[in-house]
Amino acid sequence: MVEVQQLWVQKVVDSMMKSVERENTWKMQGLMFQCSASCCEDSQDSMQQVHQCIECCHAPLAQAQTLVTSELEKFQDHLAWCTMHCNDTVKDSIDAGSKELQMKQQLASCVTKCVDDHSTSSQL
User: Fold this and answer.
1) Phi-psi domain of 97 (left: phi exceeds 0; alpha: psi -120 through 50; beta: other)
2) How many whole angstroms from its chain centre is CA 12?
3) Which of 1, 10, 93, 114 could form a Cys-Cys staple with 98, CB 3.0–4.6 A?
């Protein structure tokens, strides 16, 4: 059951990342390369000026990648917290005398809800 949940979480994260790549990263990379190429057009510029120009072209993509990494880390933190909460809830059920199958179903349902809640509210 846990393996199925992990695969599902991985699928959700992969889907979100592919969406970010398709809708943002690829366009930004294209613009970055076009900008970088234009930095090399003026033969009067020094090598230092060309390198500074290219660095400026790379900055927006680097900032976007930093933001995506930060949001992904927040998403993982939320899932970890939520999973701990689910585990605590199931442990409370053990104390109340619930059956093993009920506890597994309760855990699976709780984790699924966590992923649903956090994947739809994520800014990725």
Assistant:
1) left
2) 10
3) 93
Range 76-100 burial, b when 16+ CB lie within 10 A, else e = eebbeebbeebeeebeeeeeeeeee
Q: Assess contact for 106 and 98: CB atoms under 8 A.
A: yes
Confidence tier at 70 by pLDDT (50, 70, 90)? very high
Please identify which residue in the block is written with the tokens 């959700």. 12
The candidate with the shortest Cα–Cα distance to 112, out of 14, 15, 6, is 6
Q: What pTM was estimated for this model as a whole?
A: 0.69
Burial group, residue 39, by CB count within 10 angstroms (0-12, 13-18, 19+): middle
Q: 25 Cβ partners below 8 Å, 6+ apart? A: 61, 64, 65, 68
- Write the pLDDT tens digit of every residue in 54-67: 999 999 999 999 99
Q: Is the pLDDT of residue 97 over 90?
A: no
Q: Are 99 and 116 in contact (CB under 8 A)?
A: no
